[in-house]
Amino acid sequence: MKINQLAQQADVPAKTIRYYEEIGLIKAPQRAENGYRIYRTDDVHRLIFIRRCRDLQISLEDIKTLLAAQSDNSAPCDKVDNIIKQQLKRVQVAREELCKLEQSLSALASSCQRNKVSECGILHKLHSEEA
Amino acid sequence: MKINQLAQQADVPAKTIRYYEEIGLIKAPQRAENGYRIYRTDDVHRLIFIRRCRDLQISLEDIKTLLAAQSDNSAPCDKVDNIIKQQLKRVQVAREELCKLEQSLSALASSCQRNKVSECGILHKLHSEEA
DNA sequence: AATAAAGGTTCCAGCAACTGGAAGGTCAAG
DNA sequence: CTTGACCTTCCAGTTGCTGGAACCTTTATT
């Protein structure tokens, strides 16, 4: 299978696949005589796994760890567990941050009644202490 | 006032101030004879404004627009209004995304009962269709 | 006065995770 | 036989900084 087929099946741009290879996230595949990369069905699964992790905004570094954990089947899964828990923490914190942001911004958005910048409540609030 | 004083008063690293100057977000200040940047009280206010906007995760591009709007006092504040509304939208979308992420991750986090990778529910779910 | 520490300056590199584009080789179809 | 799609490599750019080297100036201490 050539790179674009893999790309299509895993729903990951070909460019990104080459990038993943470059940074060592996936191993370099065999090459055809013309130099084209040749992939196996196995690679589709691995790449889909990676895409799912990326959908969950797990960093490439952490994905590397997850992949490594999988290649050693008898290893304890503390690492896997920790990564997911960490991610959950990160996402929770980020969501809380965004909630605060949302409040600030919606307060700002409702504060512009005039139509001249000099009288604009938004800019006034952004300049005042409490914004 | 020298750059580190400005940095302290506005709570923005000196390095970042130079960067803002470089990309044209703030204008180049006067220089002392020794080449040091000399800032005025005015600059403190502008920089605090910028920091507040960054706290709200408004992009430097948009902050540029907000600053430009302010320098033309008689301009209508549609632009300001639009930027804030856009930001609000962006933040709302991002928060919703994070809520979904949080659900997925917390489902994953609770799915590991065994202590071998080969039996790890987390990895199984990440490999299965629905993850 | 000599020297050390603190604070300036410039420029270059790197982070994450790609993405775009140039320049060129290969392959199937009309 | 040429057009167009697909492959290759390599280089550059994105966002918003941040770290560090190499160097100069000012201030404090011995």
TrEMBL record, chains A, B:
Keywords, A to Z, come to: DNA-binding
* Limits of the HTH merR-type domain: 1-69
In the record, what lineage is assigned to the organism producing the protein? Bacteria, Pseudomonadati, Pseudomonadota, Gammaproteobacteria, Alteromonadales
Which species is this record about?
A: Bowmanella pacifica
- Superkingdom, according to UniProt? Bacteria
For this UniProt entry, the molecular function terms from Gene Ontology, in alphabetical order, are: DNA binding; DNA-binding transcription factor activity
- One Pfam family, please name it: MerR_1
Q: Which InterPro entries match?
A: DNA-bd_dom_put_sf, MerR-type_HTH_dom, MerR_fam
- What is the protein named? MerR family transcriptional regulator
